[in-house]
Amino acid sequence: DAAVLNYPVAEEGKIEVSRFEKKTAFASAQINALSDSLIVVPIAYFPGWTVMANGKNISVEKPLEQGLIRFKLPAGTYNIKFEFKDTS
Length: 88
Hints:
Strand order of the largest sheet: 2-3-8-5-6
Distance between the termini: 33 Å
Radius of gyration: 12 Å
Number of helices: 0
Order of helices and strands: EEEEEEEE
Strand content: over 45%
Structural class: mainly beta
């Protein structure tokens, strides 16, 4: 159940997560996407969250009813950074 996630999971595709750290306005993960994947992260989505994969901004998908951050990655190995930037 996505409501009790402690780390990113693949909604589509297959991933291996070797590290996931979460703070209030920042998180990071090491993700190996074994195939093109749609990934769900246990972080509540609000406008202002950015997702970077290997230093490049990637777009965030529309959240599902749980309201968690979702994004797509092509197959490959990634250093992911999630950052909340205040949109005052």
